[in-house]
Design goal:
There is one protein chain. This protein is an alpha/beta fold. About 25% of the residues lie in helices and about 20% in strands. The chain has 13 helices and 16 strands. The strands form 2 sheets. A 14-stranded parallel β-sheet has the order 1-2-3-4-5-6-7-8-9-10-13-14-15-16, with no helix packed on it. Strands 11-12 form a two-stranded antiparallel sheet. Strand 3, helix 6 and strand 4 form a beta-alpha-beta unit. It starts with 5 loop residues before the first helix and ends in a 7-residue tail after the last strand.
Length: about 425
């Protein structure tokens, strides 16, 4: 191996993707040790990382071309053992000149001072903070101002981040294309509207509210005819947004992020999980402008609409999707709290659902507790020319008779049944 040209050895090393194989290879010779170190672009470390300044400097010297670093202390007990602290972040920010992606998970010793060091990383494009208990909006604002190349920001379970100067700054002067906020109890979904002009550049957006013990109960009474999109009171649009996920938010009486549904024009993937107070008008507004929608995931629980309890959407939503979203390929529906003895609790009917299936080239279909769907639906589904994957979970109205129909589906290659007691094949 030592007789081979270094350029050739470098190309061979590039073909090896396994981290364990690369580690073993680096022990063979000094030449391979150096080449492998120069080629390594990403590392993931945790409790085994020696966090002294000298050790971290040596690590950066060993891998001088790192562009992706993930520090993960999940499973570690705070206060026990040594963890990466502010000094360690300073080492990475000052010695990794090519750093593009940084993930900090359960790093309880890093605060605003440490995060502020990242402002010197002009190449940093992606920052993910997962369970960062000491980081506040002050540190995040430093990153927003200093990291001029930042295009992706993930905040997960960051309980001390509240004021949104950082968000307003990124919306006004930043270049974010991906924003994910999950379980940050001091950030309300209404606050995200302050992103302003930043919505124009976003391609992916997720917001999930941190839920409490009482969120499983239906408490509000909503108006099923309310149209949050009849007047345009928020002056922004989401022309580039392709992926949207909203989870566990309440959109009444303040509509908040509900308005985003009527402002998307390029949306391809939509996920709505237990969003309270939505109705058919929201989906109609979305369908009118989102002809490129390819995937929809709905997690629906019972809502109170005056004297009735039912899920948010009805067949009107299915008809709107069938009419406007002719590229729809993936449909994933889950119903929670609906009784098989009360079919009106399901806003959807089998008739409306089959209109959607027959109008769009559905490849993947997942139905969870969809007990409006029975053997007749399976018979109609069996003629779907594009269906490749079907998953049924607790769909008790489907029996062996329905399964015999589905056996004739022309392109079906993946079939999953879970807790479908009447279907025993």
């Amino acid at each position: 191996m030592e007789d081979l040209p270094e350029a050739l050895v470098t190309e061979i090393v590039k073909k090896i993707t396994s981290t364990s194989d690369l580690n073993s290879l680096s022990l063979v010779s000094k030449q391979l040790y150096k080449i492998e170190g120069n080629q390594r672009g990403a590392i993931r470390v945790g409790s085994g990382l020696c966090s002294t300044t000298e050790a971290l400097i040596a690590l950066c010297a060993r891998f001088p071309n790192l562009w992706k670093v993930e520090i993960d202390y999940s499973g570690c007990v705070p206060g026990r053992g040594h963890q990466l602290d502010n000094k360690g972040i300073f080492v990475f920010s000052s010695h990794c000149s090519s750093l593009i992606e940084l993930t900090l998970s359960f790093c309880s010793y890093i605060d605003d001072s440490g995060l502020g060091c990242l402002a010197h990383c002009k190449t940093l494009a992606s920052l993910r903070l997962n369970s960062a208990p000491q980081i506040t909006s002050i540190g995040l604002f430093s990153v927003a101002v200093g990291c001029t190349s930042l295009s992706a920001l993930h905040l997960i379970d960051c309980k001390e981040i509240d004021s949104l100067e950082w968000l307003e700054y990124l919306g006004r002067d930043g270049s974010l294309e991906e924003l994910v906020v999950k379980n940050c109890k001091r950030i309300n979904h209404h606050d995200l509207l302050k992103f302003g002009a930043g919505w124009m550049k976003l391609k992916k957006f997720e917001f999930e509210r941190k839920i409490g013990i009482h969120d499983v109960y239906v408490t509000g009474i909503y108006d099923p005819s309310y149209d949050a999109h009849s007047t345009d009171i928020y002056d922004f649009c989401c022309e580039s947004l392709k992926d949207l996920r909203l989870a566990h938010i309440i959109t009444w009486p303040d509509i908040g992020l509900r308005v985003v549904l009527g402002k998307c024009k390029a949306l391809e993937n939509l996920c709505l999980e237990y969003v309270s107070a939505l109705n058919d008008n929201d989906m109609i507004a979305l369908c009118r402008s989102c002809c490129d929608l390819k995937s929809i995931t709905l997690r629906l629980n019972l809502q109170r609409f005056y004297d009735d309890a039912m899920t948010s959407f009805t067949d009107i939503t299915l008809y709107a999707l069938a009419l406007n979203c002719r590229k729809l390929q993936i449909v994933d529906l889950k119903f929670v709290g609906c009784s098989t003895d009360w079919p009106l609790e399901f806003g959807f009917t089998e008739k409306g659902f089959l209109v959607l299936i027959q109008s769009c080239p559905i490849r993947v279909l997942v139905l969870n507790d969809a007990n409006f769907f029975d053997d007749e639906g399976m018979k109609a589904l069996s003629s779907s020319p594009n269906l490749e994957t079907l998953e049924l979970i607790r769909c008790y109205a489907v029996t062996d008779a329905g399964m015999r129909f589905i056996a004739h589906t022309p392109c079906l290659s993946n079939l999953t049944l879970r807790v479908c007691c009447e279907s025993v094949m």
